[in-house]
């Protein structure tokens, strides 16, 4: 028979997957001989079985639970449900990884109308007994039976009001007895049944509630945000109660071995005299700092410090501990590696290394790479933020903090930026035409659009703060103001945005810039020594490129060339190209663009100082460059000497039903080889000139997007090579260059062996590859993905974290097939996934040479790459 | 050293891949001892080498050509370029399969200013010699050097006019000498060089021209239409000349051993006295029927008949032969299996079986499955067609012939159809709202849209004649008429459409219906005995289903359920469902739809008499059901008691950037399980009722579209199973049913092993799978695919023929993975590819259980399935 239940003494720290983190640590502490109220753990497998079994707990498991309960009775010398000498227990969830606040705790389980009387007698403390009972009824009703806690609070408040007192502690035994009667009546009214008096029923209902809680919407959301698989399940810990609410020689508290905000190596925590755990959390009474325990009960404090140090040394990490003092006797209820801020994580890791407790490698593994994001964007000055007024909230679309004057068009934003103002662009939604204005802005605020809207994606790429989808905003376009939260914000007024929380603030809050120094720098250096994966960045202008280099980027993995066309001076020229009726006219228009593109590339090459730069050729469908509103169309027609109808006809002819799957990428170069020719010329001339002027060893990497067939790549490559050789000849240069391709179409992955005959490198464009492989577009999927999360069909956003199971198969296949043809094929990834730690580990395992991500994720990628190397040694 | 050149006597019929069809047959005939002018063949590999070698013929090949030429000189006892006794040759292309008319022939090569003199002396026929020379100059200039033939014709015409004669034969030697001078002057003017006098140069230029011709646009197009790979290359046949233009005891002709139009077992052909091959083709003189040869030269005729019979018996197939008589001596210049109409193919195959010459299996293999299409649609009465007036031409979007009265809206078409009229629907372009009108029409004519437009795809599915993209049409919508080719066609006027040619005719041309009888029926019966692949049909109404059964369909592989919603009575109800604000309102609206869907399914189940029917649940995005024009929106708003703004808001909210990759397929059922519930109820109730009423053994197959994840299917399946069990219980039925899925998203193929845990069958939706795998949408790809064909990137339309190389990998993977999980998994294909013979062979090899295609392709699929079984024994 399978073992579904373990006594604490049967487990150990390495049984985390089976017993959950809490259960494993309780077992470990038991083995260490620490003062732990004993108990048992129902395994995570029992939880999985519950779900597979139509949400039923099978008898076998029930039997083992009651067997364990019997053992616990013997250990504690008490009996469950025995009024003479009752065993009371707590019931808590405990998954493999801590999911704080996801699932509630039930204390004092085992009390009923009879037992409470015996308990009062035995403890000689009727007030305490009835207080424990009313707490149990309240917690059980709320957590297990979904009777709202607030209704119980109302009864409690009434009783206090009636008696004219303020604190719960001012209620005496008789008051509490009356409250218990009312609580039970409320329960009966709500559930149409008596409050369960059988402790065994109470226990099994509580276990089921823990299992159920694994699938509540909060837990599902938390798992998605934290990459926790839904089939892990949670364990249940049943533990003998100890009581912090037995008087002034009792208490309960939470403490950390180091400061979780700053990392300072000093015990940090708080406790409450005469209280149960929930009181600390509830915040009704203000707890005292842990130091006060040294005054209140010095010998208990000393014991506490001894054990805290022992635990930190044992786990070799900062511990987050819960403890209870029952009549001067100290118990530990749990310990775990403490959550911490990124800043604290870095300091603690460095300190532990310096203290000789862990190695650099262990330090690297300890830090949550994702959390570094907090340190990589400007943030508000803490003091100023405390006084700031929140006027609304949108989605935290791109992290960081920004303050500036509000403008409502990209053009105004750009102009006022050029006049030296800090600006915030506020738009209904953004489109590619807004790029210049977005670039000029400190922050972007949109009324519509989700986390994957144009504004969000572009802003994240730029590292610009963005709050999207704030539907409460009403913009008045004629009079240039918007209203939000009862305030009217006019053009030119200051607001501040926090892209990490989605908060929108009134006024101009000062911000503090990110930099890599101190502990951060040390950790990054260690990471660089360990990792084998290179880290590049996605950047298409010198500012982003310089930023990325500052953050440690070793090259550019994706330099898009289309954003360059949206600038005010250039867009008329690209429109002219599109409206050209002949190849000759198109070439003439393109020739006008060469100096701009070349200038862009030169600036980037200069900033990159010889680091590799992969330049992707024109990708979006041409209609993205055309105007959509009547005025712009008329202006363009006039400018081009065409009728409005002619311009509209071209726009209509370029309209596509599914632009994502339309005439874009290398398909443009097949139809208009002259575009590829122009871009090749710009790249080669820029590279040769910078090489000559600065002496950098530049080897241009030209990347052809959206390839799905070897012949398609061969066709475009031929155009590129012909032009490149022409330029080399003209300029008397023998510069080397490489031509490669994106792998972003499923067919390219399937035929990677053939494509590698033509491609000198592959870069996985996992954004498009994800879209095509799943068959949904990022722009449209927002409408239904929530339903998928809700129904547990998907557990994470495949645009944020690579779907290793599905899309990953194509990446692996392409890597293997490509290398089979060309063993030295250089492989990289340049989708948004390139900055996601779990994807980075996948890339490491698949054998990619580098990942490329937005500048602000470069340090995350460096760390994640090092962790991948360590995890896969 | 590789052998690049083969003398005829060195080859044989089974060397077709190397020597091309013509070369292999010339070799075979040589071995049979038939009167063949000797020669040699430059291999197809030499052609491929030419392309791989930068369009150069390498010296090694050149050397082998001149070695072969030397051998030929010895055989013929003549010398190339020797004025005393010149060897003249013809140069012809010859690919593996015959590509009639793709590449031209050069005759009389080896003549120059000196040789022609000697030739005149030797033949004692200066007129003949100069006629041969002027023909050579003309052909060489045209075919090799691209000097337009017409310019030479002008000179010839001038000469005849000047002399006051009509026929070429009225020109004498002196006239021809003068013409030769003028021809050479023309050549020099055009090419800025003298006409090449060196016969070796002439020969090599001619060989190169043949190689080049393999890649001319006509050839590329022909290959694409006929599934011929571009890397096969063509061989070149160099053959000693014989002359049909040596006087009245000479001649040349073409003949078939049986009639290629009707299949009648009687020699069929024509010949010209005193002529070279080109004269027969050019049509300047009218050839005589082959019978006349019996009168003119009885002994030659007898010999001809003997050899023709010998060839047919040797190749066991109807032969298409070219012959020349040189001074009463008969030569065969080539033989090949003759092209034939579908009708002739069936008769010839049956006759050859009856004559004991071939087996039924061989007969099956002989017939081009695709060609059956000609027999499966109504066609115009031949006599009536001769008198008909073509007024315009569009794309041949869906084959068949149709005549009827013109109407300009789907509604008018429907109404007049209901009044008993035959109608032709004429639209700018069609949309899903037009479905009912399209169904009611005999034929559909659109101004916009290609071969893969909505009109074309839907019409092909229905087997309705359609001519699309006739851009010359100007529709006047207010006054209900259109103009085309100078004619004005008013509403109610008759026109006729030929969907196989794209021709648009004035008036009402009688049509003849298709039926399967006689030879066709015999062949189909044989095919059914041989094939292992089942053939189902795609049909979503009883009429199409009945048609398909008549054509031999063994079930329905794809019954779409959305078309049913577009009917006038129903669309308001589906719109009501879409505009519902609550689940309850949506359910109420859906309940109103149940009787309709159930009625549809009952009618289909009745027609199918117990044959399997796979019903696919709602697939398109909901916005397809909403009105787009202001009037309809206003009407809908009124109808629903909403404001116009509210309706517009819903429309706007449902707008998608890439609807193909949007909220559709099973994604709808995840968001609105009530839709799946309604459809399940309709299917189950219909099946149970028809089973009870008619006693058919119905096992409903419910197909969930667009699945990409096991959990997604599990979610929808649960809804289906719950509802189905509910209905079974209500109706007291124990009916079986199956739930399966489409495999049409790349991810579904990659994860087919997991998905098969939930799916009882897979049906490959290769339309969508092709779109997602290639990353282009069918609606948009038309804009650039032509460039892909032109540049030889793609050789065929991946929407017509399955891309076995890429998409096929996913199909194979899914089949293997699916069967690994569930060995009895039923596999089918229901994309448009299901009716394509080469795809059918692929499906056979991959181990699918059935293919499903439109009703009119069922016989093609039956035959192709039999051929696949034979080819893969």
TrEMBL record, chains A, B:
InterPro entries, A to Z: ATP_grasp_subdomain_1, PEP-util_enz_mobile_dom, PEP_util_AS, PEP_util_C, PEP_util_CS, Phosphohistidine_dom_sf, PPDK_AMP/ATP-bd, Pyruvate_phosphate_dikinase
Keywords: ATP-binding, Kinase, Magnesium, Metal-binding, Nucleotide-binding, Pyruvate, Transferase
Segments forming domain PEP-utilising enzyme mobile: 421-502
GO molecular function: ATP binding; kinase activity; metal ion binding; pyruvate, phosphate dikinase activity
Active site: residue positions: 454, 830
Gene3D superfamilies listed in its UniProt record: 1.20.80.30, ATP-grasp fold, A domain, ATP-grasp fold, B domain, Phosphoenolpyruvate-binding domains, Phosphohistidine domain, Pyruvate Phosphate Dikinase, domain 2
Pfam families: PEP-utilizers (PF00391), PEP-utilizers_C (PF02896), PPDK_N (PF01326)
Required cofactor names: Mg(2+)
EC number, UniProt record: 2.7.9.1
Ranges where the Pyruvate phosphate dikinase AMP/ATP-binding domain occurs: 57-288, 302-351
SUPFAM superfamilies, alphabetized: Glutathione synthetase ATP-binding domain-like (SSF56059), Phosphoenolpyruvate/pyruvate domain (SSF51621), Phosphohistidine domain (SSF52009)
Binding positions for Mg(2+) per the UniProt entry: 744, 768
Residue ranges of domain PEP-utilising enzyme C-terminal in the record: 518-868
Residues that, per the record, bind substrate: 560, 616, 744, 765-768
Family the entry assigns: Belongs to the PEP-utilizing enzyme family.
UniProt-listed PANTHER family: PHOSPHOENOLPYRUVATE DIKINASE-RELATED, PYRUVATE, PHOSPHATE DIKINASE 1, CHLOROPLASTIC
Identification of the protein by name: Pyruvate, phosphate dikinase
Protein species of origin: Herbinix hemicellulosilytica
């Amino acid at each position: 028979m399978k073992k579904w239940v373990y006594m604490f003494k049967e487990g150990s720290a390495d049984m985390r997957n089976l017993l959950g983190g809490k259960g494993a640590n309780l077992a470990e502490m038991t083995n260490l001989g620490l003062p732990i109220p004993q108990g048992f753990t129902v395994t995570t497998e029992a939880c999985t079985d519950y779900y597979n079994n139509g949400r039923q707990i099978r008898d076998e498991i029930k039997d083992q639970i009651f067997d364990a309960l019997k053992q616990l009775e013997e250990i504690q010398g008490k009996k469950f449900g025995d009024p003479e000498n009752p065993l009371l227990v707590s019931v808590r969830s405990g998954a493999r990884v801590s999911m704080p606040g996801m699932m509630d705790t039930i204390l004092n389980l085992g009390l009923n109308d009879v037992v409470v009387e015996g308990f009062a007698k035995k403890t000689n403390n009727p007030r305490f007994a009835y207080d424990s009972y009313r707490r149990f009824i309240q917690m059980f009703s709320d957590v297990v039976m979904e009777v709202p806690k607030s209704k119980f609070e109302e009864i409690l408040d009434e009783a206090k009001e009636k008696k004219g007192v303020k604190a719960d502690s001012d209620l005496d035994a008789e008051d509490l007895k009356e409250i218990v009667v009312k609580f039970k009546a409320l329960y009966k009214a709500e559930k149409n049944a008596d409050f369960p008096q059988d402790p065994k029923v109470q226990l099994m209902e509580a276990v089921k509630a823990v299992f159920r809680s694994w699938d509540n919407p909060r837990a599902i959301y938390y798992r998605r945000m934290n990459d926790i698989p839904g089939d892990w399940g949670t364990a249940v810990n049943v533990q003998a109660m100890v009581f912090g609410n037995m008087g002034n020689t009792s208490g309960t508290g939470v403490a950390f071995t180091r400061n979780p905000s700053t990392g300072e190596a000093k015990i940090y925590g708080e406790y409450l005299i005469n209280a149960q755990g929930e009181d600390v959390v509830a915040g009704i009474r203000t707890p005292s700092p842990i130091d006060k325990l040294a005054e209140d009960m010095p010998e208990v404090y000393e014991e506490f410090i001894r054990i805290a140090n022992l635990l930190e040394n044992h786990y070799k990490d900062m511990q987050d501990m819960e403890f209870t003092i029952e009549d001067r006797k100290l118990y530990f209820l749990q310990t775990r590696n403490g959550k911490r801020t990124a800043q604290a994580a870095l300091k603690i890791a460095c300190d532990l290394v310096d203290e000789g407790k862990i190695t650099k490698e262990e330090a690297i593994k300890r830090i949550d790479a994702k959390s570094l994001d907090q340190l990589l964007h400007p943030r508000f000055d803490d003091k100023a933020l405390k006084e700031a007024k929140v006027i609304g909230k949108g989605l935290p679309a791109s992290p960081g903090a920004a303050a500036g004057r509000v403008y409502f068009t990209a053009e105004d934003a750009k102009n006022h930026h050029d006049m030296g103002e800090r600006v915030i662009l506020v738009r209904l939604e953004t489109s590619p035409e807004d790029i210049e204005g977005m670039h000029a802005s400190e922050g972007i605020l949109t009324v519509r659009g989700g986390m994957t809207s144009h504004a969000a994606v572009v802003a994240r790429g730029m590292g610009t703060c963005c709050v999207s989808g704030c539907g409460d905003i009403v913009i008045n376009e004629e009079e240039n103001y918007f209203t939000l939260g009862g305030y009217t914000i006019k053009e030119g007024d200051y607001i501040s945005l926090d892209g990490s929380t989605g908060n929108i603030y009134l006024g101009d809050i000062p911000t503090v810039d990110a930099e890599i120094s101190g502990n951060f720098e040390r950790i990054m250096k260690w990471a660089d020594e360990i990792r084998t994966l290179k880290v590049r960045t996605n950047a298409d202008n010198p500012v982003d490129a310089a930023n990325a280099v500052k953050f440690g980027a070793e090259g550019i993995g994706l330099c898009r060339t289309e954003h360059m066309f949206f600038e005010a001076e250039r867009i008329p020229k690209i429109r002219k190209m599109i409206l050209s009726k002949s190849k000759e006219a198109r070439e003439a228009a393109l020739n006008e663009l060469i100096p701009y593109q070349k200038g862009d590339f030169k600036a980037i090459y200069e900033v990159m100082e010889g680091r590799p730069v992969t330049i992707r050729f024109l990708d979006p469908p041409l209609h993205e460059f055309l105007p959509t509103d009547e005025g712009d169309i008329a202006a363009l027609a006039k400018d081009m000497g065409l009728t409005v109808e002619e311009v509209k006809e071209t726009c209509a002819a370029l309209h596509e039903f599914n632009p994502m799957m339309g005439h874009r990428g290398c398909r443009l170069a097949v139809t208009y080889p002259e575009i590829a020719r122009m871009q090749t010329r710009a790249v080669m001339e820029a590279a040769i000139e910078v090489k000559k002027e600065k002496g950098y060893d530049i080897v241009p990497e030209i990347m052809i997007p959206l390839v799905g067939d070897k012949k398609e790549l061969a066709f475009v490559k031929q155009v590129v090579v012909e032009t490149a050789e022409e330029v080399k000849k003209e300029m008397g240069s023998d510069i080397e260059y490489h031509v490669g391709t994106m792998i972003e179409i499923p067919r390219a992955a399937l035929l990677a062996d053939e494509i590698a005959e033509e491609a000198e490198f592959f870069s996985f464009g996992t954004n498009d590859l994800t879209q095509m492989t799943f068959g949904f577009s990022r722009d449209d999927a927002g409408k239904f993905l929530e339903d998928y999360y809700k129904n547990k069909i998907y557990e994470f956003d495949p645009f944020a974290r690579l779907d290793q199971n599905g899309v990953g198969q194509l990446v692996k296949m392409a890597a293997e097939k490509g290398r089979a043809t060309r063993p030295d094929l250089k492989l990289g990834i340049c989708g948004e996934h390139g900055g996601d730690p779990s994807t980075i580990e996948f890339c490491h395992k698949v054998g990619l040479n580098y990942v490329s991500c937005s500048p602000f994720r470069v340090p995350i990628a460096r760390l994640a790459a090092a962790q991948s190397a360590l995890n896969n040694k």
